[in-house]
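dumping this here before i forget
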Amino acid sequence: MKVFINPGHAPSGNPDPGAVNEETGLRECDVALAVGELVANYLDAAGVGVTNVFQCDSLEEICNQANASGADLFISIHCNAADAADAEEANGTETWACAGSSNGSTLAGCIQSQIVNALGTTDRGVKIATPGVNGLYVLTNTDMPAVLVELAFISNHDDDEILANKQDDLARAVARGITDYEQSIN
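structure:
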């Protein structure tokens, strides 16, 4: 099995760092890249091929690279955020899959369970992206089972602590979710 990893948002945050915690300065692009690289290392150690850890500011280019890579799975890593009025209330982990992809939903469930169990984040569940409604571009424009992982809320104080200080634990959980999925389909 080969996995394509997409740390969300542009390299070095230019032009888009994604969500930013205004108090701590923690940026989504930095967390996603660090976790993505660690996931790749853990998958490699487990004998799972990683075709790419690819970060850029063009969603179309990300999908084109993934589709050309020969990958069996696509994993996009992100941090969630809420507007100021809901910042402290919104927390937890959610993982998105594309409507109609049973393998994508299974993969999302495996990753979701591992993160919630390992880090004790609030379980916001597996969400389904529906093209034309709430279709997340990278999920609806890749050819393989794809998920978008919202690790935790960068706008929430407790979740921000996890994102800043538990990146290795997050990466291990994502990698275990991927290997759980591989075992479930074999």
